[in-house]
Amino acid sequence: xxxxxxxGGLVQAGGSLxxxxxxxxxMFSTYKMGWFRQAPxxxxxxxxxIPWSGGSPxxxxxxxxxxxxxxxxxxKTVYLQMNSLxxxxxxxxxxxxxxxxxxxxxxxxxxxxxxVSS
Length: 118
Description:
Blueprint: E1 3-6, E2 9-12, E3 17-23, E4 32-38, E5 45-51, E6 58-59, E7 67-72, E8 77-82, E9 91-98, E10 107-108, E11 112-117
Parallel strand pairs: 2-11
Antiparallel strand pairs: 1-3, 3-8, 4-5, 4-9, 5-6, 7-8, 9-10, 9-11
């Protein structure tokens, strides 16, 4: 599976961005799609995830109530709507796919940079 992330950019604090991650082929219902981020000098961290089947999403505590993950099966795309952005949200955002065959995300996109200015 190849993943192409897009939608990053520069935004002022309090603003919004929507990231998109397009998959190269249809996803199986057992797959899970996730978003992660890595800020400069920090380790990569989990942001949000959603089962491709459309089950309950998961969020990191730091983004709950501000970010929303969703997917469009027909477009083979998962989205991350980010509202009320904060400077601490600045990071490279990566999308990833877990096939469910192992407790990990096997496929990763190239990342898209989100910069939130104060």
